[in-house]
Amino acid sequence: MAIQPYENHxxxxxxxxxxxxxxxxPNKKSEGGVFYTILxxxxxxxxxxxxxxxxxxxxxxxVTYEVHAEKVSTWAKAFRKAQAKGRKLVLDxxxxxxxxxxxxxxxxxxxxxxxCHKASVWTVGDGKLSLSGGxxxxxxxxxxxxxxxxxxxxx
Length: 155
Hints:
Elements: E1 2-5, E2 12-20, E3 25-28, E4 34-41, H1 44-51, H2 55-59, E5 62-67, H3 72-84, E6 88-98, E7 102-107, E8 113-132, H4 140-148
Parallel strand pairs: 5-8
Antiparallel strand pairs: 1-2, 2-4, 2-6, 3-4, 4-5, 6-8, 7-8
């Protein structure tokens, strides 16, 4: 969840932020066909609040976001470009809905049996695909101050 100024008003809006951890991955439907999902990270406090799970259960939870087939190449390209720049692709929205978590058991590649909760998420209203993990920029005023006298270490 991020707090951002709302346009030019004197109040702040709370924005839900999903962190996209994978490119869209194909999944087979039981009746045939394919759909695509992205494994997403949801801030812990939101997972606990919206699912009712404990913190320990929420930490092990897998949350996916479904991508429409016609948008898969755009999302995949955006993910790869962000990753190449050392950035994280994020989806910001006014609110999100998380389905009821289901406990699932599966076997890992190493043969270990693991149980975890699994759920899907989608945005309410329009979402905005963006980047996180950018650089910090200095204001012109601070840059001028720093350049004034580099020998003076008063900061």
